[in-house]
Amino acid sequence: MVETTRIVLAARPVGAPTPANFRLETGELPDPGPGEVLLRTRYLSLDPYMRGRMSAAESYAPPVEVDGVMVGATVAEVLESRDPSLAKGDVVVAYSGWQTHHVAPASAVRKLDPDAAPPSTALGVLGMPGFTAYSGLLKIGQPKPGETVVVAAASGPVGATVGQIARIKGARAVGIAGGPDKCAYVRDELGFDAVIDHRAPDFADQLKNAVPDGIDVYFENVGGAVAAAVFPLLNTYGRVPVCGLIADYNATEAPSGPDRLPAHFRRVLTKSLTVRGFIQTEFVAEMYRDFLRDMSGWIGEGLVRYREDIVDGLENAPAAFIGLLEGRNFGKLVVRVA
Amino acid sequence: MVETTRIVLAARPVGAPTPANFRLETGELPDPGPGEVLLRTRYLSLDPYMRGRMSAAESYAPPVEVDGVMVGATVAEVLESRDPSLAKGDVVVAYSGWQTHHVAPASAVRKLDPDAAPPSTALGVLGMPGFTAYSGLLKIGQPKPGETVVVAAASGPVGATVGQIARIKGARAVGIAGGPDKCAYVRDELGFDAVIDHRAPDFADQLKNAVPDGIDVYFENVGGAVAAAVFPLLNTYGRVPVCGLIADYNATEAPSGPDRLPAHFRRVLTKSLTVRGFIQTEFVAEMYRDFLRDMSGWIGEGLVRYREDIVDGLENAPAAFIGLLEGRNFGKLVVRVA
User: Fold this and answer.
1) Domain covering A2-124+308-336, topology
2) Which single residue of A67, A158, B74, B120 has CA 20 to 30 Å from A55?
3) pTM for this structure?
């Protein structure tokens, strides 16, 4: 019997999550059965979608149950294997959630080559966030050379990757980020063509000036005031892949009026816009192999850069996650668990 | 010199158009020059999009100027031709607008075979409305056998055609119409699988009961309360071609709250919806030839039926158009001009 330390959902949040919504506890794991592996978590990924899983509202995935372990992707080490495909010491990507140990079917994890890239990147640029950027931009956004692509949270793992792939495809990348440090990083390190601070009082005007030819692709991962400034600038036949709406995740009720929905539809109609929600899993079968090949190559050539924001200790995951929803992280947020 | 009787935009409407927004007048036309034809209008098409052209708000096409002739597609007879491709007596589809005579380049009209189908159908099921239904449904909606397609204004030229093509493609067609006569026509004459009266107090409940497997394609041509009832019923990967929003065309300002836009985007995200505005002209080069072939065939086989609502006299066009925006027509609204 192995003991796991885990963080469970103590209560569903109303509005922004607080520390009281989480509880650290210990529990015992069964021994791995045939075909299973015992894992020790090295890294836990923290991502905005987890806010959705904390709520009971209908979504594309079932919610975490109250008193259940918080879900999440992990990089883990195999401590014990009862499956021929994996051996003790192997490093894998798993979905162990917010805990130190886990027993999983070997078929539910993917073995990593720890020499190919730092293992934590399997949670970021070479994992779900990177693939969200890759699949949503290429499959739905379809940027053409010379077009303008706008993405918010541009220093985060999805936004940063969207902009860099847009540039690889010959498009102009305009990023939106919060604060001078993040903006400088997006412009100077990631090489975006322009970057706007959404905290600036004249944000909408700055954005307009930064896109003299309008916007052809808006990769939507934030919603809120940023989206409100972007939509009027979309060109005819503009494409809007929608992968997240972090600005609205903590909302407890519909905002007061006016009701902007009719005007939104009028714009969709008169500009022949495509607005397309997606979850990256839709494209895994079709594109994941290409993604790993392309992205590994781009990282190797220096065409795609990434930044990690690593927090030490599972016990610090709740505070880090609360900060993520407020934009306090800088780069892909990962918890080093062991 | 030929005299034309025409209806011009006397003043831009604020809210619903009134007779005072139109003015009947006469004017003189120049003689046709080389390559031009003189046309006498037989039929004038009245369509919801014309409401947009009466306003100065930005749209996909420039507005009609004040004192300018109201735009519109027509079926016309060639009175005089100065182009070898057309002869006196030919019947053509033109874009003469709301007037009895017009001088146009021969290249801007399309010759009809008056024996193939009643010429007025070139303004309806075999014209722009039919092609709007055909291209939007097949290119964006992409109904698959067994799926459920919902369309409003189901007794109108677009909605009626959408539902019938959906059935040809093996999908289930659910129509929405206003009043018992239109509903009976949609069910009994057009053969939709179900039809709901949007005036019923329990409309939303009736709609829910009529789509036990949810909705896969919502062909959006009305907006408003109908759209509000439909969206919660859309299935994952639902498709929403947006070709019109007649319920909102007369709105003078954004409705009071709550603001439904964030909830709409949340649904787009969690259901992986595709919402795609379009104007049929986008697909003409790619699909118009197929459309004419398919639709002529379907009409010949009795698989697609249509209904015209013919009003006599150009002077009655304003009242007929005002009625169209209120849903008072029953079938494709056409003015018999000569």
Assistant:
1) Quinone Oxidoreductase; Chain A, domain 1 (3.90.180)
2) A158
3) 0.93
